[in-house]
# Entry
Amino acid sequence: MKHVKAPVVIILSLIVLFLAATSSHAGRKWTAQEHCFRSLRFIADGEFEEARVEVRMALKSKQLPEPVKTIAEETLKLIGDVLAGEIEKEKVISCFRHYFKGLKYTADGKLGKAEEEFREVLKATQMPESIRRIAEENLKLIESALGNRMKREAVILYLKGRKEYDRGYVA
# Structure
């Protein structure tokens, strides 16, 4: 089980990044990370023009961390391909919905359902590579937790705190 430690650290780091990006406070401007993650939500809702605006706003920032910048760049390319008709819009929407459902089920402690959703994401060819890697890491974390009750409880407890932040971003 030693090989699981690195992915767990990566996933927990990404979760913290997601929390930081999705929290909103009244009366302040959106951060670059928030614009990036809002764009993912717009894609899941089929609103590609709005998603493109959000990604472009995120990419204008010089303070966008590298993992989020990569996600933004890959997402902008995907949006361009969809709007140009090179990729089927409904398949992309479906992929992103599976991704957000996987996040929701994980936060709710429904790891079996979360595993199914992340597997659906990995079946799709339309996801940006950076998001596919996050889904793979989430799946590894879930698989390791499913066979170990103590780890399962730790994963669920950790992710339950994120549930409030996910409400506006989950399909």
Observations:
- DSSP finds nine helices and no strands in the chain.
- The chain has a mean pLDDT of 74.
- The first helix runs from residue 5 to 22.
